[in-house]
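To assess whether the prediction recovers the assembly geometry, we first specified each molecular entity separately, as shown.
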Amino acid sequence: MTTNPPSTGVWQSAPRVEDEQLLRGQARFLDDVPVDDACHACFVRSAQAHARIVSIDTEKARAVPGVVGVYVKQDLFGELTSWRMPLGFALAALPENTTPFVLVDHEVAFVGEAIAVVVASSRHVAEDAASLVQVHYAPLPVVADCRDAVRPESPPVRTELSSNILQHYVLAYGAIDEEFAQPQVLISEDFWVHRGAGHPMEGRGVLAQMEKSTGTLMVWSSTQMAHELHYTLALMLGQPEERLRVITPEVGGGFGAKFMVYPEEVVIPALARKLGRPVKWVEDRREHFISAVQERDQYWSVQLAADRDGKIRGLRGTMIHDHGAYTPQGTNVPYNAASSITGPYIVPSYHLDVSVVHTNKVPVATIRGAGYPQAAFVMERMMDRLAREVGLDPVQCRQRNLIPADKIPYVKPLKSRAGLPLTIDSGDFPALQARAVEAADLPGFTARRQASESRGRLRGWAIAHSVKPTGRGPYESVRLKIQPSGTVAIYTGALAMGQGLKTTLAQLCAPHFGLGPQAIEVMAGDTAMIGYGHGGFASRQAIMAGNAVSQAARQLRDKVLKVAAAVLGVDISVLRLSQGEVLSLDGAHRVSLARLSMLMKGVPGYALPMVDDPGLEETVHFHCDAQTYAGACHVCEVEVDPEIGHIEVQRYLAVQDSGNIINPQLAEGQVVGGVVHGLGNALFEHMAYDENAQPLNTNFGDYLLPTAPEVPPIQVIFAPSPSPLNELGVKGVGECSTIAVPAAVVGAVEDALWSRGVRISEFPLTPMRVAELLGHASATEQS
Amino acid sequence: MKTLDGSSPVTLYVNGQPRCGQAEPRLHLGDFLRNELGLTGTHLGCEHGVCGACTVLVDGVSSRSCLMLAVQAEGAQVRTVEGLAHDDGPLSMLQQAFHDSHGLQCGYCTPGILMSLTELLETHPAPDEAVIRDVLSGHLCRCTGYQNIVAAALKAVQAFNAVQGRRSA
Amino acid sequence: MKAPSFQYVLPQTLDEALAALHEMEGSRILAGGQSLLAMLNMRFAFPEVLVDIGRIGELAHITDRGQSIEIGSATRQRDIEFSDVIARRLPLLREAIGHVGHRQTRNRGTVGGSLCQLDPSAEIPTVAMAMDATLTAASVRGRREISMAHFPAGYMTPSLEPDEMLVSVSLRPWASGHGHAFEEYARRHGDFAIVSAAVLISLDAQGVVDRASVTLGGVSAMPVRVKAAEQVLLGSRAQAADLAAAAAFCKAVEATSDSHVQGWYRQHLAQVLCGRALKRALERVER
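The predicted structure of the complete assembly is given in tokenized form:
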């Protein structure tokens, strides 16, 4: 028997249950977890991008007072089952020797690669000792640019490689040669797109302690994937799964940088077990720059064929993707970009030649947006060029090509990495666009432009679409339990990193029991509390964990009422739940959740109130292999100072389809945050390296993140097309608003400067570059 | 003349209470508060003075605790996020405004921002959005995009001025 | 990123500080710490001793001496920002100080610290250069005065002996009615300037330029007084052509290229910002 869905609590901006602790400074992030007598680790990292390690001398380091030990790879012999990390996406078809090493002792392949680790009484002492570790390098040729890596004569990024081309494939469909034989309109362009690193304000960190009484290796990690970490540690350390526990503390942001199992997360627990003492490693910001995964360069060279009326006939080209020195997880970033570029548009034919290549830099893996922003940029810029070419405005030209509502669900001719056809299950793109156009006050643009001009500024605007499949499967797990104390607890494999997961799940659960969200305990990312889970990434948790909670809550509520009916001796139809109690409609009969839970715990020799599994508990693994598509339409206005190239974003509108919205205030926060991340990508963030693959930006003075004065007013409108793929009708939010931003911002700058002959096909876009495009460079050189 | 080499006691006032801890000269105030005094509400995001997560009030003014030595804080009045709401008492107006306006997501940068805004509220009669964004420019937040932080600050200004009996700008 | 070890001394008087600097090997002045402690945390510097001058009262002051304003080297930047004397008599400095870092760093950063750090983009050294500041240095051997023009010995290197420290900087206010402007371009609010232009200008009763100071920050290793620009302005009526000529001289200053910014862009900015600064400065002249 099913009950009606809750009418209160969901689809509301319930205040966050997380806030109290965070605001008081009482929340425990990784470095706040109280463990007595912990010693502190510092990694010795490669200073060279590619070299043979001739020798590692740790003698002076070991002699520093306060040092517990200095460990190289060989010292971990006996603690590890393998010198190499397992591939994160184990089913991906990739060569065996592609993953990073736990520690290296023979060859380094990027600046920042971990060579040794110092354990000491404090991080200060550990760093003192680390600076005394002498590594002798014999330099090897460095590949710093992916465009060089793609050439057959380029020296190998690692000597174990026979080629720097990790993958080379073609994604294609349709009659591409026909379409390009004699196109009515042909647009050609080359693009450089670059994203940077994740840079959550809290860096990575891991703490491990051998809990002696039970022989359990306890591991805390600031991670987005606790169960994956558990699995990997069991595998790499040969630690029995039941004597291994991963606990996720409060996480200060992830953004993909913590969606990874890192070598450091294996080394630290190995040492804790070996030493019989707690060991903690807290990443510093420089380490995040040189060893946390990031996204970097892609070079696209594309052609668009279209009719005179602006209808696209085909898109073809090549793309080279800088993948970094190893593959810790997979090659989904370039695949996402290559397979998603057609976005919400009908593109009858497509042919993209993709090269995923190694370079002597930090490995590339997903950062918020996961390859989608790069592709959206290319598509949207080509669309703007097309519009200009055929004399349509940017809205009309997109309208001509958007997948209309009556063609949804729309099966794209491309497949996901698991081989399933990419199907846009829902979404009304023309309506999304119309909503954006209506809210953007485009008719008022002319007056705004004139006002800008009166101040010597050029003003431009642009519109950009994006889609993102959300709800990455295969499942997420939730265990919902009513304790004998009456507490309602959710244990989940989903993970919190600031998005208000606990509030969201509590909101979905609480109304079923006549409670408010604050009454629900949510514990996320503790492998002892729930056996399976995947965690927070790919904008999946509202869908996966949300539906799991919703289902579990419904099922548990049913059971509660059945048990109560049996206990109270009344018909179930007269019972309701209110404030942690089951009551009959006339109020004459009542029983608390606590008592029901105790009764279902059972008393030896006495029958349970009803024949069923004991306890008041439901575990749901919400399965969904098909992803549900979230869509966005953004409109951006910028002002450019044509003398110096300064760009100021004046207005930003983000219309978002994320299906039904569980908590509008939280969802809006995600959209705004995502837009600002996109602003960072569009204008500020550059993980620059020199020709020796030495990182040039390794602090926040050189690598720029947006601050409050750079952020325009951001208007958010939700325009839901509820998902047909899950009961709640929800779609993911977290990454969606980042994807279209570089396209919208750069498009607006180009619009502002169009009459000056400026064409822009890159991001990040700096003022100096704008000045160069405006001709100020050559003017200077001539004088 | 005081000369310090190894570890020595440092006595200061934190949130109104006299506290004492040990510090080598090189130990910065942020590490001292967190590890010696157990006040882990102040966070470290960069340790080179840009992100602002470590901001506390020292003798009334906002300061980056990673760019101050613990020994320099001898005798100083330091205020941290833990002192904004008294013990388990109600949240301060500013903290409440952050809660109401969804001004925090992961919460890691929040304590530093709360301290900078506390200084602003206590010293500036009627800060408008521009002034607030100027103060916030010394803080990095990767989660919120700042919009709700500004909204929270404006809300707090209103509440603060109402209590102080001042007219808002 | 934790600092390496060092000794810490806390002198109560200037003499104690000078003695420590002289006697203790590898000693460095710790003023506001906003630059030095960041460098230490990143292990870019390894002083053996830090001499903390933060409690020496006589080093933190803003004193109007009539012909000049004397600022103690340990004066906090925030005190400059909130000083009536500075606002009235050194408006160029007042305008520049708002660009120096952020509220949180100005609360502790000092004038002397910025002067001795000599970051090529820093605003305070640029203003000091614009105003022909006189710096007073002291050591156990006594005091000496150094003109700002001679203070930078090279990139981020002041002309100070290893045991010398800056005690104060004196700035001579321009006659009231002069025009001033500090124009800066930075990527984000509060960032170090890519290029800055500091302009002081005064006109005689006939509207002819009788005094001009044009200084560029961020263009090369140290702030540059663009004498050629000043020359073309002197004796002119500061018409558009004169301003353009002055700005053109700013563009001609040799500029550094680094991994972030190319020299041509600095030169280009120098020209634009000089033009804007001159325009604003002239608007401020009281005629």
